[in-house]
Amino acid sequence: MALSPTLVDKVETIALGEPVAAAAFLGGAPVFALADGTLHFGDGAEERRIPVHEDAAILVAAQDGDRLVTGGDDGRVVATNANGGVEIIGDEKGKWIDAVAAHGGAVAWTAGRTARARSAKGEAKSLDLPSTSRGLAFFPKGYRLAIAHYGGDSVVPECGQTGGARLGGLASRRRHFSRWALSRHVDARERLARLASRRRQTYAHGGISRKDSQPLMVA
Questions:
Q1: DSSP string spanning the chain?
Q2: If you placed Cys at 101, which of 132, 136, 162, 188 could pair as Cys (CB 3.0 to 4.6 Å)?
Q3: What is the rounded CA–CA span in Å between residue 61 and residue 59?
Q4: Of the candidates 209, 189, 191, 187, the residue with the CA atom closest to the CA atom of residue 200
Q5: What domains are there in the chain, each with its CATH number?
Q6: What is the pLDDT along the chain (219 residues), one digit of tens a residue?
Q7: Rounded to the nearest 5°, which phi and psi values hold at 103?
Q8: From CA 146, how far away is CA 170, in angstroms rounded?
């Protein structure tokens, strides 16, 4: 009796040559965010690579419609669309980007104990956090932002609306992380952050240059 087809028959192996930090579909085509700071578009003869974080590693990523927002250890937050157009959303001057979230044109990210959000109109706001964040998520309507950090989580109201230079009031709770406050990739980001921390310590104590270091890998 002939065996019925399985999903394995539909799988194609793609040799990327670098560890993958994130993956998404833009315009119906697969896109892979690689640890060498590039985005790999496509899965066949029309493959192409776009450098979005030159001489840096991509640590985190979030999809928003037809664009992929990435954060790297160069301190930059970059949005890349399906056509390969690149826009720099934010620059933390070398601070490592710990988490990113995107919704309806708005983008939020954290670096250390600072959270920032930029609305679809380009207005940027910032907020000081009680501790380093490892997860961000917009509420479904995009007006509030959930921030998961060490020791608890926080909710920022009206972060997607226009206003002053600071994010809305912070409602913080010391409790276990809410499931909606963490994205499904937070475990992978945690592993990337730990590996990144080890590499940073190697730079500080071993004097190894970035070019001599190994790329980040997700265990």
A1: -PPPP-GGGG------SS-EEEEEEETTEEEEEETTSEEEE-SSTT-EEEESSTTS-EEEEEEETTEEEEEETTSEEEEEETT--EEEEEE-TTPPP-EEEEETTEEEEEETTEEEEE-TT--EEEEE-SS-EEEEEE-TTSS-EEEEETTEEEEETTTTS--SSBPPPPEEE-SSPPGGGS-TTHHHHHHHHHHHHHHHHHHHHH---GGGSPPP---
A2: 136
A3: 7
A4: 209
A5: 63-208 (2.130.10.10)
A6: 556 677 777 778 888 889 999 999 998 889 999 999 999 998 766 788 999 999 899 999 999 999 999 999 999 999 999 999 999 999 999 899 999 999 999 999 999 999 999 888 888 888 888 888 888 989 888 778 888 888 777 787 765 543 333 444 444 443 333 343 444 444 555 555 566 666 555 545 544 444 443 443 333
A7: -160, 120
A8: 10
